[in-house]
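For the sake of transparency, this paper describes our internal protein records without simplification. The record that follows is passed on verbatim for readers who wish to inspect the format:
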Amino acid sequence: MSNKEVKAALKSARDAIRNKEYKEALKHCKAVLKQEKNNYNAWVFIGLAAAELEQPDQAKGAYKKAIELEPNQLLAWQGLANLYEKPNQIDVKGDLADVYQKLLELYESGDKQKWCDVCNKLVELYHQEKKYLEVAETWQKLIRMKQEEGAEKAELHQLWKKMIQLLKDSTRNQDNKTGLLLLTAFEHALQSADTVPGEDHQNLYKDFIQCLSKFPHEVARLEKACYDMMALYPTMSYPLEVLCLHFIQSGTLSEKDLQCFSRLLEMDASSGPGIIGFGIKCLKENKYKEAVKSLTEGLQKTNQCPAAWLYLAEAQMKIHEHRNTVLSCNQALEALGTPEGPNLRWKNLALQLKAETLIKIADADAAEEAIKVLEQTVDASSDPVVSALRGQAYLHKGLVDQASKISQELLLSHPDLAEAHALEGFIHYSQKNYEQAEKSFLNAIERKAGTAEYHQYLGLTYWFMSDETKKDKGKALTQFLKAAKLDSYLGSAFCYLGNYYRDIAGDKSRARGCYKKAFELDETDEESGTAAVNLSVELGDMDTALSILNEVTEKARPGTAKWAWLHRGLYYLRTCQPSQAVADLQAALRADPKDSNCWESLGEAYLNRGSYATALKSFRKASELNPGLVYSIYRAASLEQILGKYENAIATYQQILKKTENYVPALKG
């Protein structure tokens, strides 16, 4: 076949393809290849025809052969791209991306429009595959090409916005390079916006700041963006809210940062971050109750802020709301999820505070949980303070040997650590080795004099050591006073001050004040509440006694606060108010149905009210629970007599006289 014949055969093949006679085209091409096996056009035409005949493997082989012959010719690359773009082609996206890359290279110095079309296709392909870095780099090439061609500012603005749209999901699995390219796109889009200030520009700025807040290493850039947006849109609270949340999460608040919270609250008094910031300010000023109130309110509006939950836990811990502290630590840990980088520090702080609080709850279950919590902290084994906490948890769980082992190791490795000496003191105190406990607590105080708990335990050590140390003003009393001064929310210190003034100093008025304070701080402290009521009665101040009892009973859930219901019921009984006495004594029995004395008092109240049958049942119940209650048995007999059950009454009187021969009321009955 001559050269002329080859050209004629190729023309026939081209015409056959144009007429969709693909098999005919293949015949012409094969004839050419018999003569010229490296004929580029023949291989390209075979690729085209085979693709149309649904023979993708043959088409792919033909195009690749053509490319091998002429790697910088367009036709074969275009054909291969068309083949891979067909919907029935699977697992070819990687190959298609390579083809597009080659086409970009070939179009670069020629057809700019085709270059842009291929570039768009390549970006779309990378986006489907979630290859965000490749998306960003390729789209940037497109923008550069447009800039070189002298594109208008408005067109470039739309291109930067499109890049932001393409990369918006990349922050979920961000890598630094893609992140930087996304932030650069935002900055260019903001700079190229037409109307500044304007609604589109404002929304773009919001998205930029939101994006920046997802990059922990872009702190300076975030702060600058917030301040810049505040300057452009001074009435808008959004940038200030983001800035305030950033300051909260940073954990270090300067005076300038605190001013941002005040400014935000002036702008929007109901702003969650603003209220949280005010709560943190209160915490730093030792206004713990105000801090708890504000932080709780702020977190109801902005609850996904781990640092704020931790600040709330810290404030709750300061006022000894231990159960609530644990709940807030749990919220902080939940909001943190699986933390990395700076958030890892917050996780450790939350775990440590939770463990410390569980230890303060001081029961075996809480101690068990504290041990598990401490195991989750990073570098727990190398932190001596965490080891001391673990020792306390073992002690509360009753594992004295493990606690002692930790104590001994800490005293050897960290002899100047207050927590090590305190742990030793707690162990001695639990075993009533008061002289050794005294030495340990004095050593702890020497190293950390500002810890109320150490003074409290030293005071307790003196209280139980001997009558002499209990009565010595310079011993127990001094330590309780120091503990109360260092921690004005430590209810147990005020309770023991009450014990001292009542039992040692004989100062009922001062003792009553201390018990009242202790009970105000901890409404579950029945000992202090009861003592405050009893001393108020002894001092003839029934108003104070009743105000305490009324406050407790108003808040009490059914089946709780027995002591308060009982005290008030007895008061009503003494002051001839039997109906009120009945209601209160019934409430006391809901809390403790087996209290025989309470049943006896209830019987007395029913009797005074004239409810004889119910009074009889109450006295019988009292004597069933405690057969030694002669008065209840006698009252039951006298009520049987009143109700006309004479035989029963005689039998009951005889029952009393068998036990107590000369019990006059029974003889009389």
Remarks:
- The CA atoms of residues 620 and 636 lie 6 Å apart.
- The chain has a mean pLDDT of 88.
- The radius of gyration is 43 Å.
- The first helix runs from residue 3 to 18.
